[in-house]
Amino acid sequence: MSENTPSKILIRTPNWLGDLVIASGFVKAILDYYPESNVDLIVKSGFENLPMPQRGKIIVFDAGKNTAGTFGRELSSKNYSHFYVLPPSFSSAWMAFQSRIPQRIGYAGGFRSLLLSKAKKHEVKPRSVHILKEYLNLLDPKLSMEKYPPNLEITEEWTQKHLNTFQKPLPESYIVFTPGAVYGPAKQWPLEHFRTLATNIKKSFGIPILILGTNEDADFGEEISQGFEGIHNYCGHTSLTEFLAILSKAKLLISNDSGSMHLMGALKRPQIAFFGSTSPSWTAPVNPSASILCNNLFCSPCFSRKCRYGHYDCLKKIHPELVFQEAQKILSVKI
Length: 335
What we know:
With 335 residues, the protein is α/β, with parallel strands linked by helices. The chain has helices spanning 17-33, 68-74, 90-99, 131-139, 156-164, 191-205, 218-225, 240-249, 259-267, 280-283, 313-316, 320-334; strands spanning 8-12, 38-44, 58-61, 82-85, 103-107, 118-120, 175-178, 209-211, 231-233, 253-256, 271-275, 290-294. The protein has two domains: 8-139, Rossmann fold, CATH 3.40.50.2000; 156-334, Glycogen Phosphorylase B (Rossmann fold, 3-Layer(aba) Sandwich), CATH 3.40.50.
């Protein structure tokens, strides 16, 4: 190991599932950039079993049990030389500051410059380039998303292990709907559109549809699946690893801009994704098998959780007939 090579690197990964998956590309870049360094990841509680690329430990941070400052101070004796701070929050920079790790690298903003040893300014308007490129620029602006796309380290053995723990029956072939979006209704395609799409897919292909999501999405799944045969509402019935394993075998995922969208993107599997209040330029899946549907209305992207005008036209006007045409293209080849 050369004198300039850090012996131990720590990465504070993002709090949102989708951003965490995107950050896997940055983690892989760090591993390649510093092949002799130990690289540990701080991961939000609940995401610790996601198979991220790594060469070190997964350190779980539970904001309900520990403050950022206290957690940071506990890191001060661990002999890290570099701390990469990916979340844009003040608290994540405060955690890094309290750790007293010498090199604390992240983006400026919100008084974070006072806490970071290297507070990088955005070279372009925030949210105007892909968030993965923003992460990679913290390491080296010459790094590309093409070389370091999101990537989760799953194998067939890993997949089968987690499929075997799932307690519900799985068809041999299926597609997946994920109608939820934790961010809010301005990222959610209308449930009646999902139901219309399900009707068209069932009539044309007869393929089973699994609806996946959290417990909070169970009512969405019920509204879409009610009265249908071959449409299974499994919202709230999967662990994160089971969710990922099920996606890895799906013929197609149809989703909002959400964590599930980025999981499928990292798997490089066929997907159709809806963008309403958010921007594909910033958070589209880095996946050649992705079809992105976005209306680009005068008011979008607004990045709001709720529509300021109350009409949600950015999503409502992505008509199910258009989505079905995209699904036909994919399913006609893949099945």
